[in-house]
Design a protein that fits this description.
Blueprint (H helix, E strand, L loop, with lengths): L2 H13 L9 H18 L3 H10 L14 H12 L4 H13 L14 H12 L3 H14 L17 H5 L5 H7 L11 H25 L4
Helix pairs in contact: 1-3, 2-3, 2-6, 3-5, 3-6, 4-5, 6-10, 7-9
Length: 215
Amino acid sequence: MHHSIQQTINFVKLTLANAEAGHDWFHIERVFKTALTINSIEKGDEFVVSFAALLHDIADPKFNDGDEEIGPNKAEAFLNSIKVERAIIDHVKLIIQNMSFKNSFDSGGFTSKEMQIVQDADRLDAIGAIGIARAFTYGGYKNRVLYDHAIAPVLNHSKESYKNTTAPTINHFYEKLLLLKDTMNTATGKAIALERHQFMLNYLEQFYGEWEGKR
């Protein structure tokens, strides 16, 4: 592994030492590995993909009063400090600024093959078995109920209402998780997403059966 990638891994591990479990080093590591798996088939620039995957959550706005510039700026400062070339830094910064789910509400942003690869890897970590675990972890952190039959999912959130929801965690499946397979950019991402999507559908069916005392 190139020493600049290893330096980045060390920096991210240190920075996220006390992070919330859905956005901790293990999340970053999974996204990094998945991004490299997709990149091995899709053939983007491996350095850009690696840096963007490792640094994409370096300062999650959810835990920084909604400030969406802290992350990109922190990533840029770090890459400067280890003397990464300017063109790569600029590209990585653009990816981090534009790849979050919330920012997909603002259409017409930047895109590149590398951003598509990292975005697919990040969204894949939100679905399937790990996606389910992360959703309930974050719901627990916010003290949300698991499920409430009386509270229907909101299927057309604005950016603001999505950020401020207090709905049951099961609603998050319909508001975000089950929509993610159709947002995949790459053929490789789409193939992995289909399998994880089906796993979530099976899980929900089991969940409702248990909720009603039928399974």
